[in-house]
Structure formats: C-alpha cells, structure tokens
Amino acid sequence: MTTNYKRIVLRMMPLIAAAVMTASCGARAAADPAGDKTTEKDSMSTTTATPDTASARVLVHTSAGDITVLLYGDTPRHRDNFLKLARQGYYDGTLFHRVIKEFMIQAGDPDSRDAVPGRQLGAGGPGYNVDAEIVFPAHFHKRGALAAARQGDQVNPMRRSSGSQFYIVTGKRVEPGQLDAVAAQLRRSRMQTVFNELAMKNRAEIIDLQQRGDFDALKAMQDSLVAQTEAIVAKDSVLMTDEMSRAYTTVGGAPHLDGQYTVFGEVVDGMDVVDRIEAAATDGRDRPKEDIRILSTEVLDD
To answer: What stretches in the chain show pLDDT beneath 50?
Structure first.
C-alpha cells in the first residue's frame, strides 16, 4: 500500500467514527452524484428467502422524449424501490436537476417539482435510504448505466443510496493508454471500500478509543486495518475486466465512480434523449436553464 493511501486512511479513521456518531451532512465533490440528506437509521432494507434475479423495464416519459431503462434483477432492493416509486407516480413532474456534459444527468428530487429558477436542489428524497448493492465489476459505469445517487463516504461510509435520486451516465471515451491509470484508480477505490467496511465492523471500539483519547491504540488499530485491507485486496480478481476495457475505450463512461455507487440498471432505448438532455444549457449549479421534466413513468413488465 502506498504512503498516499496510508494518509487517506489516517484521515478516514476519525471521519468514519464521526459518521457513526452523528448524522450531519458533509460537503460533496462537484464531480460526484449527490444524494438526499436522509440519515442512515432510516435506511430501507429488504430480504428475500430465495435469490431474486428477475429484471424489469420502466418507460420514463420526459419533456425531451422517452427513455426505457432495464432494472437489473441482481440488485433487487433498488429494482423494487424504483418500481414502487414509478407505480406511485413519485417521479411525475420532477426535474432533471443536475446535468454535467460528458458525465451524467441526474433526477429524482421531489423538491424539484415546483422549484423556482436558481433554487438549490439535490437534497430531497422519500425519507429513507436503500442499502448498497454494488455488484462490481459485473455492473459498472459504462455509457447508459443507471445508478443511485448518495451522500459521500465521510457521512455515509456504507455507501447507502438515496431513496429516490438516480443518474444516467453519459461519460466520455477513455483512450487505451489511460486504462492502466483507470485500473489503478479502481484498486485505490477498492482499498478504501474494504477499509471502510473493516472500520465499520470495529466502530464501537473506534468510538470508545476516541472518547478516551487513546491515540496510540487508534494508530495501532489503523495499522491493523491497513494490513487487513492489503491482504484482502491482494486476493481480488482483476478489477478491470475485458468487458469494461471494451466499453470504456469505445462508448465511454465514468470509471472513476466504479465500485462506489450502486449501478442497478441501464438505458435500453432512448439514449438519444439522454444525449439531448445532457446537451442542455445549464446554470452555475448544473441545473438546466430551461426545465426538463419527467412527465410520467410506466412499468412495462407488470
């Protein structure tokens, strides 16, 4: 593990403990899909007695045209939540409130329905989060991927998804010579994910040590978690698959998000509409200057 990574986890240790103790919202990087501010204790979690792998399709009617998305069967919590909201008409009238060229279009904030121009959006939701279902590398951020927005790791180390906000990737093509750098970034992300998971398993002890001010013990625990992280990641299979390499060098995507957000579907028809939305002129907050709305949603596989 590099020295830079050790600096990262050294900073993450108190941040993870703080996230466990509080529900305050941290700052978001401009290049990441932000989710609502629902606290982790309101997370929606469902279980099934047998594996559920049935996919489903939803037709999203927008003021720019129609988009059909396929919801993956191996992310059943996100699939079922999206289907529930679609059937309820939850998305009707909401905006594509965040659009960034060569990256993604984001929607699903209920506060956007009657939002006046210039209003800050992106914090709304249904009052719960959805437990992460990151099926990586099977599902990745290729062009057309449908994924769930969320709060950042500082306040959401388990990477739970917003209850309603989603984004569709447009991205850009990766040059073949850049694939090694992308693979290295994926490995760093994987290491941070493993470290977060190990830290959360030890959160009670971390909090106790912080409250007692036992920084020597905290440093020893950090070193132990770093060593465990290195051992786990060393056993990982290849993170950059042939399918990913082909997709990123041909149609493109947003590989810097891989392994960090739940990808739960993809666009199967209407990518030209997505491109039209992506091309919209936006203000300083990445909101289209002319509103682009979801008019209605129609579940096709009932």
So the answer is: 1-30, 40-49
Q: Tell me, what's the pLDDT at 26? A: 33
> Per-residue b/e over 212-244, b at no fewer than 16 CB within 10 Å?
eeeeeebeebbeebbeebeebbeeeeebbeeeb
pLDDT given for residue 56 in this prediction? 97
What string of DSSP letters covers the chain?
--HHHHHHHHHHHHHHHHHHH--------TTS-B-----GGGEE----SS-----EEEEEEETTEEEEEEEPTT-HHHHHHHHHHHHHTTTTT-BEEEEETTTEEEE--GGGTTPPTT---S---SS-EE-----TTTS--BTTEEEE-B--TTT-TT-PEESS-EEEE--BPPPGGGHHHHHHHHHHHHHHHHHHHHHHHTHHHHHHHHHHT-HHHHHHHHHHHHHHHHHHHHT---SS-HHHHHHHHHT-B-GGGTTTS-EEEEEEE-HHHHHHHHTS-B-TTS-BSS--BEEEEEES--
Q: What is the pLDDT of residue 157?
A: 84
